[in-house]
Amino acid sequence: MRRFILPLVIFLVVAGFLFKGLNLDPREVPSPLVGKPAPQFSLPRLDNPETVFTPKEMLGKVWLFNVWASWCGACRDEHPLLVELAKTGFVPVYGMDYKDTREDAQQWLDQRGNPYVATAMDIDGQVGIDYGVYGVPETYVIDKKGTIAYKQIGPITEEVLRDKLIPLIKRLKAQ
Amino acid sequence: MIPEIGHFALILALLVSLVLGTLPIIGAASGNAVWMGLARPAARAQFLLIAVAFVCLAYAFAAMDYSVMYVAANSNSKLPIQFRIAAVWGGHEGSLLLWAMILSIWTVAVSLFSKHLPDDMRARILGVMGLVSVGFLLFMLMVSNPFERLIPAALDGRDLNPLLQDPGMIFHPPMLYMGYVGFSVAFAFSIAALLGGQLDAAWARWSRPWTTLAWVFLTLGIMAGSNWAYYELGWGGWWFWDAVENASFMPWLVGTALIHSLAVTEKRGSFKAWTVLLAICAFSLSLLGTFLVRSGVLTSVHAFATDPRRGLFILAFLVVVIGGSLALFAWRAPTIGRGGKFSVISRESFLLANNVLLAVAAISVLLGTLYPLFLDALGFGKISVGPPYFDSVFAPLMAPALFLMGIGPIARWKNASLPELAKRLRWAFGVSIATAIILPLLLGNLTPMIGLGLFLAVWVFATTANLVYQRLRGSDQALITRIKSTPRSWWGMVAAHLGIAVFTVGVTIVKGYESEIAVRMAPGDVAHLAGFDFTFVGVDEIQGPNYSASRGQLRVTKNGVERTVLTSEKRLYTVTNMPMTEAGISPAVIHDLYASLGEPLTDGAWSVRIYHKPMVEWIWFGCLMMGFGGILALSDRRYRIKKRSKDEALANEAVA
């Protein structure tokens, strides 16, 4: 009686998909910006509002672009990792302070250490829109040609740094 | 020391469940009465051991033992005691322990109330439940041990997720799990019947009360969850088609189908294979829900911390339990007889149609829930399936189901006459159509969906009223005698069906007529919504046990007469640093007024959201009526008579 086997067959197909699903991360959202040139901007720097930071300065280098804010809890979690990374000098880390105030941001960095070569101030969040920021922290790996090679949504963890960012940056540096 | 006792009790419970899951089943196959006799003591020992483990974990929470990793991760010294206890099931490991605990409660309940069952049947049922328990205890001991130590101990705990710090946390998960796990009884009955080859009316009669009880728990559990989401999430929604909500809803749909199909199997001997399949599916979907929440394959607000090893373990367990039982079904079902014949127009046909609609609804919910996973696994990219899919699929399936619900109980078994049915229900039909058109016109907004929803709700009301009228009219007995002589299970059906109607009214009206505004309010400002004036009194700062909060008050007046004061809080839980909104709600039969405090703006002003939710409470009241209907059915005489006749039998035995 073939029809009585049908439920079993359907279940096994579903189970196969569930098995495949275990190795997929539903939170890993691909960014349409990956593979595209990093949007240009020119924003005042945190340490010196008179000068501006623009991604053009970084052409020819592989760098990390970290979007953070003093009001963001998850940024606090990833911050020590960024400080460590910056100390090694492996890759320059630039920050963008998103929808924040100068005083809060400066105080935050004074307390926790400053991993950033420079921090751009995106006070009204305009540049954030160009980059498709939908939650801080977010981190972009930008290659020598100024193309976004990778986007990390949410805090960088040790695993992400070890398994994804460092190998990727090594490869990009070698290009 | 106490946590080690709990851990040890779990290990012993695993050993006992291994005995329970093997020897009685083998004994039933080989006719070994001693081995079959092990089932009952083993079920009790297992319950006691798991209860010891559960109490140990609860004690660790109450005593704030932060050397236990799970306790440190899910509570805090400032957390009030009732939430510290509820935090036992606030995370992955502890909620599994609750699962195992509830399974052992059901198992022990079956062992207590199964004296009338043949020995081999009882041994098989308890054995199957023991096997399920083996899986869960193994899972806990291998990859999810709640008693794992944290060395050195934490100074204080990381606190329970603030979303869960709510009275809803105390009732919702245990109720829901009682429902989920309760379907394991119907499942075990079916597997036992397949193994023993005794699929008859008696099997259906034994399964029915257990299935109904599990269904009552599941109904009330889902209701509690929906109500909790409504007041806790701060924007007045009551159902989100979230993956995990769906995971609880699918067993409900299949369980509802099962209750009806069991009735046919008991009364008419038909649908046997279908009933068995439904019983397997209801429990399988419960297990699947457990998998979805804990494996991280889907995104959901309910998801626990994920660990691929855990996901793999549960998946393997699912394949063994579900795959094994469906294989058994494929092997044994062809030998099941067909049962009584019935014509196209008969109560059997209507029930079958309703069953199919409910099953298709469950499948479409399953499809919508897993669709993002399917596409992702096949490499078609990421999508999310939201309420638009579910709403547009669900309404067309439920509309005919509700329509048939009005006819089914009136139609005769075996062979009914369509003209006779039409004649009997023509008034109900007319009243429903008229209400569906006139009422929305009076309320000032007639859309097809409102019309359809009201038509179906009134249709169920009117046909049920007709049913009751026909049952009680005529004959020369006094009305009260006739009411009393009608079985309670019949009244249970009436109550549950009316509950569906009440629920439908709530959903239709709130979807059709709710309104909301988002405004900037400084103290003294007045906002207007649905004829009410909301005056913003202002915000003061208060301090809770483990949070600080801004509490905003809105005075509600209508035509200058004060109606109520809505108090909404914006809390910041200090340990987790998470903000939470406590909505201010004034619930009533006709409408809820609902306010939630948004963000502080400049000059002491706040953003405030105000909602007017007409008849939203009917949604949960309808669920309560369904649950009440189930309880009425359970209190039916026939279940008590059986007990009495058994007592008599025992007495006779004693005399002899």
Provide a descriptive summary of the structure in words.
The complex is a heterodimer of chains A (175) and B (656). Chain A has helices at 6-22, 73-88, 102-112, 126-130, 158-174, and strands at residues 43-44, 52-53, 63-68, 93-98, 119-122, 138-142, 148-153. With 175 residues, chain A is an alpha/beta fold. Chain A has a single domain, classed as Glutaredoxin, CATH 3.40.30. A 5-stranded mixed beta sheet of chain A has the order 5-4-3-6-7. In chain A, strands 1-2 form a two-stranded antiparallel sheet. In chain A, a hairpin with a 5-residue loop joins strand 6 and strand 7. The model of chain A has no long low-confidence stretch (mean pLDDT 85). With 656 residues, chain B is α+β, with helices and mostly antiparallel strands. In chain B, a hairpin with a 2-residue loop joins strand 2 (526-529) and strand 3 (532-543). The longest helix of chain B is centred in the first third of the chain and has 32 residues, at 201-232. Chain B is globular and about 80 Å long. The chains are: A alpha/beta (175), B alpha+beta (656). Chain A binds chain B through residues 1, 4-5, 7-8, 11-12, 14-15, 17-27, 29-30, 73, and chain B through 273, 277, 280-281, 284, 291, 295-299, 308, 311-312, 315, 318-319, 322-323, 326-327, 329-330, 333-334, 370, 372-374, 376-377, 381-382, 577-578.
CATH architecture of one domain in chain B: Up-down Bundle
CATH topology of one domain in chain B: Four Helix Bundle (Hemerythrin (Met), subunit A)
Q: What kind of assembly state do the chains in view correspond to?
A: heterodimer
Percentage of β-strand residues of chain A: 15-25%
Just give the CATH class of chain A. Answer: Alpha Beta
CATH class of one domain in chain B: Mainly Alpha
Task: Name the CATH superfamily assignment of chain A.
Answer: Glutaredoxin
Largest sheet of chain A: 5 strands, mixed
CATH structural architecture of chain A: 3-Layer(aba) Sandwich
Structural Rg of chain B: 27 Å
The total of helices of chain B stands at 20
Structural class of chain A: alpha/beta
Number of helices of chain A: 5
Total domain count of chain A: 1
